[in-house]
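pinging the channel bc i need a second pair of eyes. not urgent but kinda urgent?? the chain im working w is below, pasted from the shared doc
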Amino acid sequence: MGSLGQGPRLALESGGDDMSGTTPAVIRMQILSRPELLAPVRSMVLSLSERFGFDEVESGHLALAVDEALANVIRHGYDSSPDGRIWISFHQINDPRPCFRIEIEDEGTQVDPESILPRRLEDVRPGGLGVHIMREVTDTCDFEPRKPGGMRVILQKSPGEGHRDPRPESSSSSDEAGPEPERSQ
């Protein structure tokens, strides 16, 4: 039997307050700064966002943004050290407009949020597009220093036109019109 320090670690909590003191988290989890944990987190983001009413494309965008944020924490915040702690909390906010808020917190290297800039797209080379992607696919992407150290990334997205009601469809919807016929020109 191995010790607790070996292998990937994923811990989940449901409900309660998150570390930032904002709205209570629907789910809060802790992972270690190991790249092999990114895939299960992406799966969870996809599942939760679809349950909150996002369509498949929007859910994929949220999963991509979270993946990029976590990869940046692992690479830059913890300098690829596998034992840094990362907290991820998921919030469903309904005021003033419904949105899904994801907070990612770490105890890694703290940086000035003003210095976190996306690379210019004209600068063609591998890597370095994470911040650009995160800002492009979410409504808001904010970076904050944590006390006493580390950073907090706050990603927020409201459902777009592809938003679907997460409640099961009622049986009375059978009278809806079908697709419009194609028109020839």
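so The longest strand covers residues 85-93. and Residues 1-6, 16-21, 162-185 have pLDDT under 50 and may be disordered. — does that match what u expected or am i reading it wrong
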